[in-house]
Amino acid sequence: MVRALEELFPDDPENLLNPGTRSAAVHLDPDDCRQWLGALNDLRLVMASWLDITDDEDFDELMDLDQDDPRALLVATYGWLTTMQDTLVEAMMRSL
Question: Per the record, a Pfam family (predicted)?
């Protein structure tokens, strides 16, 4: 996953940390999709453990955190990873 993202900006990998500077698309074959789904799932599981998320209600409650709460960025990242995972599953289902 990291390798595929680094390949988007081979001459300037710091742009991965500043997404507002460029846009790019990652094209995945079926094997890549399965690997990405596994990685996204693993990242989400780790974050869920850190945040004590065991179900959707836990996540929904955390979405109401004040932006100054130190967990707010982690909650937003968890939500973004969830969206990426859902989007990838939907794309795989459409390609069947």
Answer: DUF2017
For the chain, give every domain's residue range: 27-94
Token readout for 32 is: 């890549």
Q: Which residues contact 44 (CB under 8 A, 6 or more apart)?
A: 78, 81, 82, 85
Both tokens assigned to 23:
């846009």
Alpha-carbon distance of 28 to 25, in angstroms, equals 10
Rg (CA), the chain: 15
Taking only the tens place, the pLDDT of each residue in 24-59 is: 778 889 999 999 999 999 999 999 999 999 999 999
